[in-house]
Amino acid sequence: MDQEIRLGWEEWIGLPDLGLPALKAKVDTGARTSALHAYDIEPFGPSAKPKIRFQIQPIPGRSDLVIACSAPILDRRDVTSSNGETELRYVIESRMHVGGRDWPVELTLTDRGSMAYRMLLGRQAFTEDVVIDPNSRFCQPELSYDVYHSAKVREVAPDRALRIAVLSRESDSYSTRRLVAEGEKRGHVIEVIDTVRCYMVLNALNPEVHYDGKRLPRYDAVIPRIGASITPYGAAVIRQFETIGTYCVNGSEGITASRDKLRAHQILARHRIGMPTTAFAASPKDTGNLIGLVGTAPLIVKLLESTQGKGVVLAETRKAAESVISAFRGLRANFLVQDFVKEAAGEDIRCLVLGGKVVASMKRTAATGEFRSNLHQGGKSASVRITKEERETALRAARAFKLGMAGVDLLRASDGPKVLEVNSSPGLEGIERTTSKDLAALLYEVIEKRVRPSPVRKPRKGR
Questions:
Q1: Which of 190, 207, 215, 305 is the most exposed place for a label (fewest CB within 10 A)?
Q2: pTM metric for this prediction
Q3: How far is CA 260 from the centre of its chain?
């Protein structure tokens, strides 16, 4: 039998399952159920296994310190408070840590923001070996709110369930299916949202994103899978989530910049990142000078809005380049003229950058008679070991576009790696199958780390 534990009318307790290492609780034998302070209470997840998430300010008077919590829903029941008011509350279960002991307790969730204690311990929380001394306080070792101001708050944070939106118009694509499957495997709730079916409410006090006639809930994170054809609208939706304060794996600024090939090359140039010599002009009178600035044939003529190798033409002679440029201008299309890196020999390297690290890389080789190495154009892939210079180039490119997830395409040139493109919605299928790495899992590790609580500075005395 466990040793008897003695509690006073006021005690320090911890709720490790919720990431709350220190709370000051009032012990009330007159109350049947226990109550925990919670606001922004929101049920989520499948009806068969519903969950609840909420926020709590564990230190009374400190509105700047907020901990996000989640737990399975145990029940929902009417609770009558001491003033006679009845409230329908969600009920969860959590381990309670007191004086070196742990045991499960049921907690009802309610807003106790105006009360001195963030937690009330009712008699249902007491086991047979708990003795209450109503005339004493702090019979067990005292804790401290200082834990919320140190790195320990991250160490004790549990693996809470997250609500994550995948913005994608292709719910059946490999990448989207992998993101859903891996997220659910890790206990999160993943919702696939069709980007173009989102619409926005713009106001100063409460900006919102709506979908199919309803306001979208608050998400812990958004994973954008924005197709090139809807870049402007997709970026606007991402901006709205950013305005709300939702963590987006890739921000609207980086997505927009990466899709505009002219702007993308200007960003690479500004950060002094190696790339093939590139030229752009609007007037047909500048065709000769445009070709001369890039170099001699063969040359690459590339539409600004090209994706997956489409709209990219190899002009093997100067005359061929002039003909392609003339044809593109006849279509009123915007394009770049780019030096063809011969020594790459139809090969490029795709580096996948996640959370500031290159987590996978593969070499893509063009099919016979083809200069484009894209897998969509029949190219083949193989895992490859990249050099330190190539790794640093890929990281610098992702940082230049402020992307948390990026596919950086490199050419191996005689004078060092050259960035061909920075992709803000890189596909997972080719690189996962080529490298045998679980890249969807690595992405969720980045997200989980990003949304964990951070230490909050202690207020200065006298302020």
A1: 215
A2: 0.78
A3: 23
d(CA 180, CA 381): 25
Which residues, including other chains, have CB under 8 Å from residue 228's CB and lie 6 or more apart?
259, 305, 307
Q: Which two tokens stand for residue 89?
A: 């509350």
DSSP 371-430: ----GGGT-EEEE-PPPHHHHHHHHHHHHHTTBSEEEEEEEEETTEEEEEEEESS--SHH
Query: Domain span at residue 9?
Result: 5-155
Q: By the 8 A CB rule, do 381 and 393 touch?
A: no
CA 329 to chain centre: 40
AA identity, residue 227:
G
Q: Is residue 402 part of a domain?
A: no
Verify that 311 and 169 share a domain, yes or no.
no
Max CA pair span of the chain:
97
The first and second tokens of residue 50, run together, are 């519903």
User: What single-letter amino acid sits at 237?
Assistant: V
Q: Under a CB-based contact definition with an 8 Å cutoff, are residues 379 and 367 in contact? A: yes
Instruction: Give domain status of residue 435, yes or no.
Output: no
The whole-angstrom separation of Cα 353 and Cα 345 is: 24
All residues at 6 or more sequence positions from 102 whose CB lies less than 8 Å from its CB, including other chains:
16, 95, 96
Q: Cα 355 to the chain's mean position, in Å?
A: 9
Per-residue confidence band for 281, with pLDDT thresholds at 50, 70 and 90: low
Strand partners, 336: 302
Domain boundary among 133, 155, 177: 155
Residue 397's nearest CA partner among 438, 426, 433 is 426
Rounded distance between C-alpha atoms, residue 123 and residue 323, angstroms: 86
- pLDDT at residue 434, as a whole number: 95
Q: At 240, which CATH number?
A: 3.40.50.20
Number of CB atoms found within 10 A of residue 54's CB: 22
Between 252-259 and 261-270, two packed helices, what is the crossing angle to 10 degrees?
Answer: 110
End-to-end CA distance of the chain: 49
* pLDDT, average across residues 311-325: 79
